[in-house]
Design a protein that fits this description.
heterotrimer, A mainly alpha, B mainly alpha, C mainly alpha, A: mainly alpha, Helix Hairpins, 3 helices, elongated, B: mainly alpha, 20 helices, about 0% strand, globular
Chain lengths: ~110, ~525, ~120
């Protein structure tokens, strides 16, 4: 049971993120929901990389035996960087829309439709 | 090693390096002068296109090209001491990837040539060209990577650059609204892809597409991962009912960018096909997934074209047609997928349907790019995109009108243009699979023609209107950009069979042949 | 490789070059007919003006049929369809995301459970 705790957290975070994204109307809150979803995905990948009794792949300190592959950590680092870029872009869009439309409510940002 | 050898050996890497280099040096070069910057971007685009063509020639002549980053030899996918696990990032350029690369190179050159004059009125173009080259790098990366996580990274590079491009002309906030919708949906889709990648990694300890394909079990987890990836990429390529961002984004992006967004969507389509054919192939339930893709395709065709007819904004109308044409590709390839396990049906019409679908990708990129560029030329000259305000432009914009006619006839599938060749292949092979689908496809084609007759009549026909008496023909670089695409539309329509033999059939066989893909990655060590 | 090979569709063939020849032949016929037309009219005179049974020519903008007038009948005939379809494109991002998540869930059920 305890081993599954990270994965249970992933499920909970995913649900929180999805509900936030789908029900909130403020662009900034939608972005926060996306970030929570992204954290869930990151946690999922990091949790998959855990090996019981594994040795951290730090060459200078590790004993010279088999080490854990650092791939998931590398993936998550990349994914976090992408997440930062996305957040920055969405926030800048929110700023421009606040200036031009006077609102960040997604229900009112619908001049393009039909 | 001579310089030519170096280029040929490292072509897959240079395909990404050159656009990135061009992108990030552009703001610096732009400080010198506008002319120098224009020469820089055009030169770099031509170099990128040349590399893509060299690579494509090598792939079509000698077979798939494997490029392993950081390995002792460029084709050493599995390091000798790794116990048979390919740990490095690899680029795997097979015929299908090279085919997509050619599309990207041709459209990229035309669009860049066009932007040199269509964007010349605006300031701060350094950012524009930087984002443009990032999009090019994203598309080339997506179509040539052999690593599923790498695919995700390039997908995100492409999404971010495209969103920046869509919002580039703020347009009173409208463009930003479109970009926001595109970006939020793309990010949501990308997170689903990331979950799927996590599932593959947890299950097979591999990120390499060939490795995952070899170990594929089609368990419940794989089904979930398949659905997540298919849904996300179907959304990115604009299949109904996930198409809602397409008309907004296509209509509000600068016209030159819209022509390239078509290619960007097709890179997602490529990803979708790559996942279902190369990673899953016959291990999955081909009939169900094939029918899902067929239904998405039919819905896209019908809803796209019927939504296009009442539109009043010329670019929004064309954007709905882009949705509709994507349906043809999904239909053709979906039929090929649905009969994949059955050798007799596959050789009877499955391959032909796939060839039609894949050929249509090429043709669509050409004529849709051409149509968006002509729409851009019209908007550039008269300053409105409202069809109700247009009329009589045929008197002054003759060449634009000719290019528009070529594009409109090609998209409607009128012989002897290229759209007809690929649509005929789709009709006849799909008819053998299920006659109703073929009939729907033909009706959609007729409605497409009807809707372009409306555009043609309201834009170019009628007497010369007094308010547009001063309108001039589009500038020469824009005409050349359109001319390249128009020439390809005509040539590919007149000589379809050589094109099918040379480009399309190898691409389709590379896509359908899962064993060949795995062997060329893992068997090379 | 034969450049002029007809396209094989698995069911029939399509030879664009034949079409092209027919197209050129038709063009020549059209050109010959056009050649026989009257070419001796004087430019810039009454001969060039449209003749509408003696009525005054309407203003140019009024002659042109605008885009929204086209296919009125088609849209009217399919009114029920369009009344459902067009409002679906609400323009609200939340709706679009709900569509996306709902379709993903539906596909999960179809692929994961039913097959």
């Amino acid at each position: 049971m305890l081993w599954n705790l990270p994965f249970i957290t992933v499920v909970v975070l995913t649900l929180i993120g999805l509900v936030t994204v789908l029900l909130k109307k403020n662009i900034i809150k939608i972005l926060l929901g996306l970030n929570i979803l992204q954290s869930a995905a990151n946690l999922f990948i990091v949790a998959l990389g855990y090996r019981e009794g594994g040795v951290a792949p730090i060459f200078t300190l590790a004993p010279s035996e088999l080490m854990v592959m650092p791939t998931p950590q590398a993936l998550v680092l990349t994914s976090i960087v992408i997440g930062v870029a996305t957040s920055a872009l969405v926030l800048s869009f929110a700023m421009v829309l606040q200036k031009k439309y006077g609102t960040v409510d997604i229900d009112k940002i619908r001049r393009l439709h039909g | 090693m001579t310089f030519a050898d170096f280029i040929i050996t490292n072509a897959p890497a240079l395909l990404i390096v050159v656009p990135l280099f061009a992108a990030f040096l552009c703001p610096v070069i732009g400080k010198i002068s506008t002319t120098v910057r224009n020469c820089w971007v055009m030169g770099m685009m031509l170099i990128t296109a040349a590399i893509a063509f060299i690579l494509a020639y090598r792939v079509f002549a000698t077979g798939p090209v494997l490029y392993v980053f950081g390995a002792a030899a460029t084709n050493l996918a599995v390091p000798l001491d790794s116990g048979g696990i390919p740990i490095r990032i690899i680029f795997m350029v097979d015929a299908m990837s090279a085919f997509m690369g050619i599309i990207c190179a041709i459209v990229g050159v035309s669009v860049l040539l066009y932007s040199l004059s269509s964007e010349s009125r605006n300031s701060s173009l350094e950012g524009y060209y930087t984002l443009f080259f990032l999009m090019i790098a994203g598309v080339f990366g997506m179509v040539s990577t052999g690593d599923i996580f790498n695919f995700f990274v390039f997908l995100e590079i492409l999404s971010l650059a495209s969103a920046g491009m869509i919002a580039y002309r703020v347009d009173g906030g409208l463009a930003v609204e479109a970009a926001l919708k595109y970006l939020v949906l793309s990010t949501l889709g990308a997170i689903l892809v990331l979950f799927a990648i996590g599932i593959y990694y947890g299950e097979y300890n591999a990120l390499n597409i060939a490795m995952i394909a070899q170990r594929m079990q089609y368990t419940m987890l794989d089904k979930i991962a398949l659905v997540l990836i298919v849904a996300a990429l179907a959304m990115k390529c604009g299949a109904v009912p996930l198409h809602f961002w397409t008309p907004d984004a296509y209509s509000r992006a600068p016209s030159s960018v819209t022509a390239f967004l078509v290619v960007a969507s097709q890179a997602s389509l490529y990803g979708l096909f790559r996942v279902v054919f190369t990673m899953y192939n016959v291990t999955m339930n081909c009939v169900t997934v094939g029918w899902i893709i067929i239904i998405l395709g039919v819905l896209s065709m019908v809803v796209g074209v019927t939504m296009a007819i009442p539109q009043k904004d010329i670019k929004r109308l064309m954007a709905y047609h882009a949705v509709s044409q994507t349906g043809y590709m999904l239909l053709g390839v979906g039929v090929g997928l649905a009969v994949l396990g059955n050798v007799a049906l596959t050789s009877a019409f499955g391959f032909m349907a796939m060839e039609g679908g894949i050929f249509h990708i090429f043709n669509h990129a050409m004529y849709k790019g051409l149509l968006f560029l002509t729409a851009g030329a019209i908007v550039y000259r008269i300053g409105t995109r409202d069809l109700n305000k247009m009329g009589g432009l045929g008197h002054t914009m003759k060449y634009t009108m000719i290019f528009f006619i070529i594009g409109a006839l090609a998209i409607a599938g009128i012989p002897p243009l290229n759209g007809f060749a690929s649509k005929l292949m789709i009709y006849e092979s799909v008819y053998l699979f299920n006659p109703i689908l073929a009939i729907i496809a033909m009706v959609v084609s007729i409605l497409t023609l009807a809707s372009f007759v409306k555009v043609f009549h309201s834009v170019f026909m009628g007497p010369q209107l007094p308010e547009y008496a001063e309108v001039k023909e589009a500038p020469l670089p824009m005409l050349i950009g359109m001319g390249i695409l128009a020439a390809i539309c005509i040539l590919f329509g007149l000589f379809p069979q050589p094109v099918v033999d040379m480009l399309v059939a190898p691409a389709v066989h590379a896509l359908a042949d899962q064993g060949g893909y795995i062997a060329s990655v893992l068997g090379g060590a | 490789m034969d450049l002029f090979a007809p396209l094989l569709t698995g069911y029939g063939i399509w030879a664009p070059v034949v079409w092209l020849v027919a197209f050129i032949a038709a063009f020549i016929v059209v050109y010959l007919i056009w050649k026989t037309g009257e070419s001796s009219y004087k430019k810039g005179t009454e001969l060039e003006r449209p003749y509408l049974s003696g009525n005054a020519e309407p203003e140019k903008g009024a002659v042109h049929i605008r885009a929204s007038n086209l296919y009125w009948g088609f849209l009217q005939a399919l009114k029920g369809y369009y009344d459902v379809l067009v409002p679906l494109h609400t323009g609200v991002l939340t709706d679009y995301m709900i569509w996306f998540v709902a379709v993903t869930a539906l596909l999960l059920v179809i692929v994961g459970v039913l097959s």
